[in-house]
């Protein structure tokens, strides 16, 4: 998918898609960036599935990417599901990566990577929420595998990389001294832009101190024992940060509220 600035407005220039991934374009207010909703028509991800997204925003254009529902990673018989996302943002462009939660069912196996390439004057806001099982149904993530990797480049230079790797007895990993304990899940918010240093104190208030600025990348971390509260914390952070970071509307995309 590629968006460009055409006659002063951000418009779709190119789209190539193949089932089960489809892009829908819900209506937005005239002063808002266009919104693309990535839909998995298969209803979820199973072991052995391979998904790839390549999204580019050309100079001066703006785009928000979201999803209409949480992504479900189902129990696997052995193979891992793989999801690879590449995001590119040119000079003066604005890109928001705001999908809803990813839910790991017990015994799910997921390998996921997000590669982000930004120009020095572009603005980026990204969110990822990952839930360990379906607590409302009494299910914990006790077994399976997770490999989740981020890399972020500004002007071609790698400025931030992050990864988590878990496999086997995930209940033991959770209970380890540096594990996540009884957390229902975690979330990461990434903000990049020319004014990002000015947002650090606000970010620390939003994340109750768990925010830092590294190589021009503002990071917020959330770890919470209640999935609904985790989501509320992320929405509240977006309400505060989004207008200042990218000029987007305060709060989460409207599809999150449907």
From TrEMBL:
Keywords associated with the record: Chaperone, Cytoplasm, Nickel insertion, Plasmid
One MF annotation (Gene Ontology) recorded for this entry: nickel cation binding
Main localization (coarse): cytoplasm
Keyword Chaperone recorded: yes
Subcellular location: Cytoplasm
Highest taxon above the source species: Bacteria
GO cellular component, one term: cytoplasm
Subunit: UreD, UreF and UreG form a complex that acts as a GTP-hydrolysis-dependent molecular chaperone, activating the urease apoprotein by helping to assemble the nickel containing metallocenter of UreC. The UreE protein probably delivers the nickel.
HAMAP family: UreD (MF_01384)
Function (record text): Required for maturation of urease via the functional incorporation of the urease nickel metallocenter.
Family (UniProt): Belongs to the UreD family.
Protein name (database record): Urease accessory protein UreD
Encoding gene (name): ureD
